[in-house]
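Form 7-S
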Amino acid sequence: MPKDKKLIIIAGPTASGKTQIAVEAAKLLNTEIVSFDSRQIFREMSIGTAVPDTQQMNAVKHHFIHSHSIAEDMSASRYADEATNTINQLLEKNETVVFTGGTGMYMHAVLYGLDPTPNTDYQLRASLEKECAEKGLEYLIHQLKTLDEKSYHKIDIHNPRRVIRALEIIYSSGKTHSSFFEDKNKTSAFNFTLYVLNPDRQLLYDNINQRVDTMIEKGLIDEAKQLLPYRHLTALHTVGYKELFEYFDRNITLDLAIEKIKQHTRNYAKRQLTWFRQYDNAIWLAPEEMKKKIEEKNL
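Output:
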């Protein structure tokens, strides 16, 4: 990629204000936005994934928002192939592209590619899935924390598929899952500046709690109910939906489901921040500092 072409990356935890800041940056740079959010990509999920609103979508063209179906098998590898192709096409006609989201693995896959991990061991996976069914996800989470604390803090430990895959890699390779993503000598094909939004922690948690309340008011319960027949799909192993599925199963009350959504979202935000700390070239800014840089045209 020519050196004068550039990605402006706006990363950070959920509810940190990335969406609007990315829109303002794209308007300033007269360019388009490519999202690296692994859930906003699914068109059947709107309220629970906090997709950009109509005004934001109309202000700037977005890519990888509601672009795929939950029935599709979307992996970091597939996303990287498709997103890289889109970014390269956009950079043919634009000097910059705004690249924004909170799924660190998707961002990493585009910037640096994915390290080869062991092939699926279906017998081992079946054994881990049986353990999960019989002893519960918490049992597997404890194994992961004991064997690979870095991955415990980085991956979505409330997603059984992620936990099982991490343990599968550990047991089949004899190496930690996190070791496959720690090559500090990698170079990227893209020229980029990585900004990570880092709000005051209490303010971030307050924003998360308020966002969940707003999602409930906007109809998240009905949206989750409509998706209940598809709960077995990977896309639905997502905070905000799986807790409501527990409520529909009458395992917990609605109030407890909402509190769990808030708690699990706060936990997810902490893991997002942990992921982005691995990048020595990241520029960490409070959201208001990032807004000031845009106002000053200093990206």
